Amino acid sequence: HFFPNITSIPPSFLPNATTGAWNAFHNFAGCHPGEKVDGLAKLKQYFNRFGYIPNSPSNFSDDFDDALESALKEYQLNFNLNTSGVLDESTLQQIVRPRCGVADIINGTSTMNSGKAASLTTGHFHTVGH
Amino acid sequence: YTFFPGTPKWPSSNLDLTYAFFPGNQLTDSVKAIFSRAFDRWAAVTPLTFTETASFSSADLKIGFFSGDHGDGEPFDGQMGTLAHAFSPTNGHFHLDGDENWVLDGDSSSLTSSSTSAIDLESVAVHEIGHLLGLGHSSVEESIMFPTISSGSKKIVLASDDIQGIQVLYGGNPNSNSSSTTTTGEERGTSDSG
After folding, report:
1. Measured between alpha carbons, how far is B180 from B87 in angstroms, rounded to an integer?
2. Chain A residue with minimum CA distance to B80
């Protein structure tokens, strides 16, 4: 569907405000590790789709487990959000936003913020483990 | 800026790239012009050139609009959600979701309620061409290669992060006095993602 400008889109082409591909994720606001919430498996599929949860199992559970918390923190880091590991409102607003289908993490190679941190330490800084 | 694993890029022997549109889409000249402008933005800061060709099969870059499962293992999901995807060099495939409401001039100054489902075509085209050339996603919100875009917003000017990244791969434009361009707030739109 092509339109010359925004105002030329007819009402019949507008989606229902609640039927966006990922709008249902707003229902997970405030969820935190340890909880079990109906539909959380779909959020895990989202994170798997974009590389944040590797090695997808045959089906994801609705548990807010360690894998989801780890994925969420890495996503928050990449998108300059507070890395709380909690599904706060600002994180959900970013998650439901339309986006490019190319994964943020490919073959386990993290890009964006988390990747930069790794490359900095290998390139120019000497670190000592404590 | 980031690159794909292995840092794939177009070889120095093939920096004059051709592109073609999927014939089945029967795109109008005004739609094709959007892509031409998007290619121009990357050509301005690199030694790469982009020329449209009528031969889809032999083109280096193949652009098409498709809906749902279109055979590459990355099905589209209807309106909103994922908008497009493109493959790293030298694959050349660039697919856009045919179910979106693509706007040829998604100028944010004309925002209305209908903008909730309007996606600016040129913004997405500039982003995906970055992937075709070898750039991954960036965490810099102002950059073209940031993964998300808000509906009803327009972001088409390469940021310094984008330019630095692409010039690591290919160098600057030998015909340009400046190796980079400046970004302007005016063309950057009002996206709340940058």
Report:
1. 25
2. A98
